[in-house]
Known about the structure:
Blueprint: H1 2-13, H2 32-56, E1 65-67, E2 73-86, E3 89-100, E4 105-107, H3 109-114, H4 123-135, H5 138-149, H6 155-182, E5 185-187, E6 196-207, H7 210-213, E7 227-241, E8 247-249, E9 255-259, H8 263-276, E10 284-289, H9 293-302, E11 307-310, H10 312-325, H11 327-330, H12 334-347, H13 350-362, H14 368-371, H15 375-379, H16 386-391, H17 399-413, H18 422-436, E12 450-452
Helix pairs in contact: 1-2, 4-5, 4-6, 4-18, 5-6, 6-8, 6-18, 8-9, 10-12, 12-13
Amino acid sequence: xxxxxxxxxxxxxxxxxxxxxxxxxxxxxxxxxxxxxxxxxxxxxxxxxxxxxxxxxxxxxxxxxxxxxxxxxxxxxxxxxxxxxxxxxxxxxxxxxxxxxxxxxxxxxxxxxxxxxxxxxxxxxxxxxxxxxxxxxxxxxxxxxxxxxxxxxxxxxxxxxxxxxxxxxxxxxxxxxxxxxxxxxxxxxxxxxxxxxxxxxxxxxxxxxxxxxxxxxxxxxxxxxxxxxxxxxxxxxxxxxxxxxxxxxxxxxxxxxxxxxxxxxxxxxxxxxxxxxxxxxxxxxxxxxxxxxxxxxxxxxxxxxxxxxxxxxxxxxxxxxxxxxxxxxxxxxxxxxxxxxxxxxxxxxxxxxxxxxxxxxxxxxxxxxxxxxxxxxxxxxxxxxxxxxxxxxxxxxxxxxxxxxxxxxxxxxxxxxxxxxxxxxxxxxxxxxxxxxxxxxxxxxxxxxxxxxx
Length: 454
């Protein structure tokens, strides 16, 4: 077969080159693009033959009886064929097959050794499908794999391969977090030991299939939910400030974890990620978020030593809402009043802001108009000391995690017409978090500042 491929390529190369779209429509020549495609196709066919022969050199016969993995003995039955799609095309392997009468299950040692047990995709092709499926809708991803790699993979098959890879990554992240939490994986001071570490937290809705939101209240006119919230933690470090004294996020220091699980489980996951990043070894730990109570409940429980900062821009949005409630009362003075309150907010004078919001209404006994909006500022006053935070060189905005909600979650999972299951969304989010964290090939592998303990 290899000789035949070489002969075909030699014949093709003997034909003169011509542009892909010849103006005169003349025949007899071959465009370079066609030659490239032919060479690639031939090399894939050759590669498939070589790979099949390499893997087929060991059929996995391990004697007449082997351990079934369930405490019993599996008996050799014979050899069976299996087709596997790989990055060089489809190959067929002949493998030794064992059967356990007690478990009623088959055992194929060679499949486990090759990483294809229960799968019809090779690890290499599954990885390519995972990367493409994490980056774009499955149909487009399948077309891209076909165009760039020359491997035809259907959209549904690519979806299954990507989600299977995502499930492996998600399980590895959970196992790593559990090991750190239980002390089985110790974290040493990270290289370079950054000055500050931030945990920025936010949540965003992911469109769901009806079965995933059945019975859940939502914001739609019919009172039903169409989305489920995924909670995202963005962890990054800061070592210094720029010439103007503004904080600068360390390059390539951002990592992400996300889950649909309740706040307590999310908090444990985020705490483990912060620990993996060295939270126990930095001078200053900071938690950034909006005013959602669940965020601050978790921050207080998980990082009691951290400085807590409510995102300044969320706080300003709440202030503008109060200004809107006072528009009729203040009239032409609204703009000046709002400017004064913004200055108070930026300075961290929250008591003055609250008093000023009630003052115009007090004479008319209408303080109830703003009473529902003011507790946001009152309970977060210590998290709104923006002037002091800035003097200390800290970030006061949660833009990093908000950008993460858009780039990690929204860009892939919130496109028009998409509806997800919790399981499928979790798998794809796990892949995107791994990619965004620069850990695609290293999830579940201890970093150079981690070591296993007894």
